[in-house]
Each structure stands twice: as C-alpha cells, then as structure tokens.
Write a structure and sequence with these properties.
By secondary structure, this protein is mainly α. The protein has a single domain, classed as LemA-like domain (de novo design (two linked rop proteins), Up-down Bundle). The protein contains seven helices and no strands.
C-alpha cells in the first residue's frame, strides 16, 4: 500500500514538473516570437519613410516602390504566423531590391535623411536576424521537449503542438537582382 502511494506520488510529481517545463518552454517560444514581432513592426514603420525618400530621387523606379508597398500590405493582411513569416520574407526581398536601386543614385546616397533611414533599417534587419535565431533556438528546444519520452505523453495529453521555424524563403537566399 505504501509502495503504491509512493509510485502515485512520483507519477503526479513527474506530471507536474513535466507540465511546468513544457509551459516554460512554450512561454519562452512565445516571448521569442514577440521579440521578432517588435523588430518587424519597427521595420514596417520605417518603410514608408524610406519609400518616400527614394521616391523623390527615383521616380521612374515605380515598379520597385510598388513591390515594397505590396509586400508591406501583405504583412499587414497576414492572418497567422506562417502567413506572416512568408509575407515578412517577401518584404525583406523587396527592401533589398529597393536599397539596390537607391545605390544607383549618387545624390540619394548622399542624402542625410536617406542615410539615416538606411542605417536604421540595417540595424533593424540585424535585430530581426538575431531575434529569428533566438526564436528558432526556442522552437528547437520546445520541439525536442514535446517529442522526447516521457514528456511526449504530457505534450499529447495537454495538446502542446509543434511550432514552425522562421526560415528564409527561396528569394531571400538569392542575391538581389536589379534591372534598369
């Protein structure tokens, strides 16, 4: 009888500790996503200023400016994390093309407002990259926890599901191509 009570107590203790561990990992994962979200919001807010600055110098580069605007609108209209990741990746590619176009305008490259916006965007892109790495580390840790025995039992019991990695889209892996 005492032995059965000890076994039951150990199983309950294991269940509590395992569940709490999964909750901590899930919260860390959500916190890492929030870190990405903050940086993406910052980039999202910088884009109109950058586009307007470039627009004054590169009026005939309308297609690139429209691509950036469309990509920004896709981000705003994303309905879930997967769609948001894809939209953000498209936006990153469009921004790369915009910066490449801007490089061909010496007056624009010397414009203090443009230089400041470009520096802020560059810093934000670096922060996004660090936040993505942190998020993906959290995803890896979380996925391992919900797949490993014996916590896999708790994960299935309490519906802890896998979360996606924030991966670069195919166009982000390619060099930016600018055609004139």
């Amino acid at each position: 009888m005492v032995f059965a009570i000890i076994i039951i107590a150990l199983v309950v203790l294991w269940g509590l500790l395992g569940y709490n561990s999964l909750v901590r990992k899930k919260n860390s994962l959500e916190g890492a996503w929030a870190g990405i979200d903050v940086q993406l919001k910052r980039r999202f807010d910088l884009i109109p200023n950058l586009v307007e600055t470039v627009k004054g110098y590169a009026a005939h580069e309308k297609e690139v400016l429209e691509q950036v605007t469309r990509a920004r609108n896709m981000v705003a209209g994303a309905s879930d994390a997967g769609e948001r990741m894809e939209a953000e990746n498209n936006l990153g590619g469009a921004l790369g093309r915009l910066i490449a176009v801007a490089e061909s305008y010496p007056d624009l490259k010397a414009n203090q407002n443009f230089l400041q916006l470009q520096e802020e965007l560059s810093t934000t892109e670096n922060n996004i990259e660090r936040a993505r790495r942190k998020y993906n580390d959290q995803v890896m840790s979380y996925r391992a926890a919900i797949r490993q025995f014996p916590t896999v039992i708790l994960a299935r019991l309490f519906n802890f599901t896998e979360q996606p990695y924030f991966e670069a889209e195919e166009q982000e892996r390619e060099n930016v191509k600018v055609k004139f």
